[in-house]
What does this fold into?
Amino acid sequence: MTAISATSVHETHAERKNYLNRDSSFMSWAGTLDHKRIGLMYLTGVMFAFLVGGLFALLVRLHLWDATVDVATGVKSGGLFEPGKYNQYFTMHGVFMVFMFIIPAIPASLGNFALPLMLGAKDVALPRLNLASFYLWLAGTIMAIASMLLGQVDTGWTFYTPYSIYTQKAVVMMGLSVFVLGFSSIFTGLNFIVTTHKLRAPGQGWFRMPLFVWAVYATALLQVVATPVLGVTVLLLGFERLYHIGIFDPQFGGDPVLFQHFFWFYSHPAVYIMILPAMGIMSEVVSVFSRKPIFGYRLIAFSSLAIAIISFIVWGHHMFTSGQSELALFLFSFLTFFVALPSAIKEFNWVATIWKGSISLEAPMLYALSFLVIFAIGGLTGVILGTLNLDIHLHDTYFVVAHFHYVMMGSTAMAFFAGLHYWWPKMFGVMYSRFWATIGALVIFIGFNATFIPQFVMGSMGMPRRYAHYVPEFQGYHQASTIGALLLATGIAIMVGYLLASLFGGKKAEGNPWGSPTLDWTHTSTPPVLENFDDQPIVEREPYDYTLILEEAKQRVQNA
Amino acid sequence: MITSALHWAGAHAPALLSLGVPAAQDPQKPDQHWQLPVKASSFATEHDQLYTFVEWINYVFFFGIMAVLFYSVVRYRRRREDQPPASTSTHNTAMEVTWTVIPLIVVMVIFALGWKGYAEMSLAPGDSLQFEVSARRWEWSFKHPGHDEFYTRELWVPVNRPCQLTMSSRDVLHSFYIPAFRVKRDVLPGRYQTLWFKPTMVGDYHIFCTEYCGDQHSLMIGTVHVVTEAEWDAFMSGAKQPPWNAWTGDAAVDGKKFYQQKCSSCHSTDGSPGTGPSFKGSWGTTKPVLDTATGQDVQMAFDEAYVRMSVRDPNRHIAKGDPKYGPPSPMTKFSTSEVPDERIEWIIAFLKTLK
It folds into this structure.
């Protein structure tokens, strides 16, 4: 095959062994160099981390159903756990969700699976590094679980000094776990950069790459450049605890705020490590289910890069109350508004893509529409937080908690679900129940908003975050939020349920069920074979050209 | 023009917004925004105006985007399998420039207003009353003007007078937050941070710690009492005894009050576990402790000398029984300005009453 064509090749290869069933021995998985199998192992891993992190979130929310404190006496009442336990649970929720789920979720699972397919490549450029990256993730996760079970870390996922130096918990072990997970992330990023540069199909210039590739590429740059700073920071924290080197500990002349600068110098770009690949999925899903070329392709591609660059110079907005100079605050607030723009532009472009499209409300699109609503709220509340004197009041309250859950959970996880539903038939060759997928998406959307809208309001009313007990006037908001969390958990359970059910007796998927124009769907069988393509595909069209998809659909209608 | 728009929004939006939430309105505080606490400082007014202004801009953008989105989904829904899109346009430079430039202008205006508000917060008037704040796990202590002893968990300030707080931490990071005043500042060990405000309404308001500081972070709360200027002047002139210095002269009674300020967050009196050992029935007993000077486990009598040593050098003898007690001891080493010698005697008098 020399020219790109929408004709699916799956029928020709119907009886051929695909990447899933060609070998089922344990070592064929554990030692695999196939990017698709590594992607699936990552997918299993990050979903496990997501469910564990979610269980901790539920414990936190159930505890807060009735856990009050009397202001006059400082006496607490109610609550399921002692404050020390509560602090461990929210720490574990944060650590699992940030380091083990949301950072690797999209690039390492869906990115691993789809990136070579979209580029017309047989695999990633460095398959062994890819497998090493997965085992580092596994090692880091086991270390984190060990420090959780044995060491009861209670520092929050941010490990702020000097508390993290003084607390008698397994902070060093947890720090090493984050260090190892960081290298897993660096390896993935490095691999994707090389793959994107070197393995694009003939004819696939930079502006013929699907936007998911652009987004994963921009993410990979961030992973490689920013993550080492986190690695160095947690090592310094470990040295401070073990040898009192006096860099962060004020008792030895150190500066605890320096830790915050180091930490956010990584962790702000990390926010974009989480959201950029989600934006990439959005560009794919919105275009495919509107059957319309993405609106403003170049603007979206460049805004991915713009976000990646600007994200390095806004870290100080996490520290508006920490005592930075007025000049620093002025600059960080100013720059923060600039990082808002590329995100807004992307939202406008997606809506403009849907405008006058041919809209199909399949499950991936439902999750994508959820993203568009939630991301708008997450972004606009970010504008409130970027405003200096408003942030002084809102900093470290539930308003911030709600804001970043709208961006991290509501947007990134929702796009992850959209991508998961989009590539699910390609991954496993089966379809999930359309009915249950619709119900699941709706319950998750309602549950999510019911959880976090009350948190916005109680935050702006002055409810501080990380409180095991609260003053009684916040109880109504907390209870509303807990009910929302239970609904959200129900939605997630429905989703996990129908996805798993589809693996056992789900309907066989068509070759290109959504009518996608990109190489991953048009030129591979479903599920793909080992090394993906029989011949080297050649790209002769723009990435979102639906001419052939429409012709095929027309023929199907005529034949029927 | 922007300022007048701001004032208009500030004046009208709360009334419009409150239609859906009548319960949030309090007749005594007629212009309280339903998402924000009462306004009790000069910053609160400006803060709430800007908040309302940004909130309305957000509503315009959000509902605008949603209207286009949901109209499109309904109007252009795919009804036949081969339905082509109604348009295949891939870009429109004029439109893309418009939706880049308009948000840019809007956010620059918001930035400038936020900076203006912050600039006022960063410079205290020269005639501000001076307070000192000392933070430790898990209590706030305040030194009022003209009085050189710290008082815990409660702060008194006069209405309509600027007050400046100079704050420092004894241990980890804390953050001083009064929602009703819209002020917040991290409190750091080994460094001084300042914060100022001018209260505008008499009343009692919450003080929270908003930087996570360990086990009882959420119990590190307090109250700021805004009193009338007349009452404040009476405190200052001595015409009325200041509440931060209202001791009875009965050592056991004052000791109990002092215990509630300094000790109760870690040491219970009913035997329940805490960060430190409970005081219940301790007095006069003999306890096993680790002497950190020699590394030996020894038996110590719980007497006057032991109490005094525990206050001045808590890391010397560590009670056995719970790894939380240390070593190193998590207890603050109290100086004579924080816990004067006669206060130790009060505590001893109180401990003797505990059976």
Observations:
- Residues 8-27 of chain B have pLDDT under 50 and may be disordered.
- The two ends of chain B are 71 Å apart (CA to CA).
- Chain B touches chain A through 94 residues (CB under 8 Å).
